Amino acid sequence: MSEPKAFNKEKFLLFLLSGIFIFQAALLAFGLGFCARNGGLKTCPAIGDRYETTFNVMIATTLALLTGGAVAAGVSKRSDPDPNPSWDDRKRVQEDPPKDPK
Predict the structure, then answer these.
(1) Closest Cα to residue 58, out of 12, 20, 11?
(2) Is residue 63 part of a domain?
């Protein structure tokens, strides 16, 4: 019996992003069809603005998740983790001054 594959969060989020594109295109097509049959822009004058706002929020959320995943993966893969982690690195920098590049 083979072991299950590890969950790939980035791949999942990219599939989610493509799903958002497809859903948004379908929703816009439906909205434009409805408006065209019922009086055009007089019936729904703000359809473009609503579409743009919804689209931007969904894309921003997905890209933020992708970026957060990349940052978290980079932090967890550090080569020599600090044994005494601290948000303030001033003390460590003072103790270990930068080496002369010569």
Answers:
(1) 20
(2) yes
The first and second tokens of residue 22, run together, are 């497809």
> How distant, in Å, are the alpha carbons of 6, 11, 79 from that of 68?
19, 14, 20
The answer to whether position 53 is within a domain reads: yes
Contacts of 9 (CB under 8 A, 6+ apart): 69
Amino acid at 62: T
Q: Give CA 17 to chain center in angstroms.
A: 9
| Enclosing domain of residue 20 | 9-69
pLDDT, tens digit (0-9, with 9 covering 90-100), for 4-52: 888 887 788 788 888 888 888 898 889 888 888 988 778 888 888 888 8
For the cut 70, the answer to whether the pLDDT of residue 96 exceeds it is no
Q: Is the pLDDT of residue 78 over 60?
A: no
Domain assignment present for 74: no
